[in-house]
Amino acid sequence: MSFIDSKEAGKFLAFLKDVNDFKGCINAASDGVLSMYEILSILEPNKNVLDKNISELFLKKTTEIAPYNDVESYQINTALAKKLGFRFSNINSWINSLIKEYTK
């Protein structure tokens, strides 16, 4: 799945106000995607805060790709935003700190 940091979303909107020759729909998302498995793996170290044993509940590895682990299907295309000159951060540069912040 694709995500965007709230501060980056604001920066993107501010960037768009200066793009004079564009009208229409445009996507915004950090570079990179996370599968549901990866998201739950990031949450695992915080299981005491979440009061759940995530790995026992959700993280069962199999050879089958579950619908929400198919990252290609849920990736937002940001090519147009990049063509206009905006550079998104990589999701791995901020996702861990966001999860830590919300699981304190």
Summary of the model, kept short:
The chain is mostly helical.
Describe this structure in words.
The protein is mainly alpha-helical. 39% of the residues lie in helices and 0% in strands. The protein has 6 helices and no strands. The chain is elongated. The mean pLDDT is 79.
Show the helix and strand layout.
Elements: H1 6-17, H2 36-43, H3 47-50, H4 54-57, H5 79-83, H6 95-102
* Helix content class: 25-40%
How much is the radius of gyration in Å?
A: 17 Å
Give the SSE string. HHHHHH
Q: Low-confidence segments, ≥5 residues, pLDDT <50?
A: none
Percent in strands: under 5%
Alpha plus pi helix count = 6
* Major sheet size, sense and barrel closure: none
| CA distance, first residue to last residue | 24 Å
What is the typical, i.e. mean, pLDDT?
A: 79
Q: Based on CA inertia axes, which overall geometry fits?
A: elongated
Structure keywords:
6 helices; single chain
